[in-house]
């Protein structure tokens, strides 16, 4: 099976902050965020809720899309989330086998 890459957005329980990232292992990365093992912004602002995921076959495409999302406004990020996940549910549970 070919490796997949993911662009993701996580938030806190009140949806007051949004963090955009890219990873080659979304299950592992999601778990690391939930356990607050990732030092920096996500740990400081309690970002543990995975609300947006997009899959790519190649890392270059994922990195380009992550940069475009990060360059956009907060409203653009909210629009991406609500288009995929209108109720802002935590998508991490759906990834578990």
From TrEMBL:
<feature type="domain" description="GIY-YIG">
    <location>
        <begin position="3"/>
        <end position="79"/>
    </location>
</feature>
<protein>
    <submittedName>
        <fullName>Excinuclease ABC subunit C</fullName>
    </submittedName>
</protein>
<dbReference type="InterPro" id="IPR050190">
    <property type="entry name" value="UPF0213_domain"/>
</dbReference>
<dbReference type="Pfam" id="PF01541">
    <property type="entry name" value="GIY-YIG"/>
</dbReference>
<dbReference type="InterPro" id="IPR035901">
    <property type="entry name" value="GIY-YIG_endonuc_sf"/>
</dbReference>
<comment type="similarity">
    <text>Belongs to the UPF0213 family.</text>
</comment>
<dbReference type="InterPro" id="IPR000305">
    <property type="entry name" value="GIY-YIG_endonuc"/>
</dbReference>
């Amino acid at each position: 099976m070919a490796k997949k890459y993911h662009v993701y957005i996580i938030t806190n329980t009140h949806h007051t902050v949004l963090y955009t990232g890219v990873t080659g292992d979304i299950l592992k990365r999601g778990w690391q965020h939930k356990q607050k093992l990732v030092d920096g912004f996500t740990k400081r602002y309690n970002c543990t809720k995975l609300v947006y995921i997009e899959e790519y076959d190649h890392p270059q495409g994922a990195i380009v899309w992550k940069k475009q999302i990060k360059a956009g406004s907060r409203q653009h990020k909210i629009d991406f989330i609500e288009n995929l996940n209108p109720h802002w549910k935590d998508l991490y549970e759906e990834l578990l086998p």
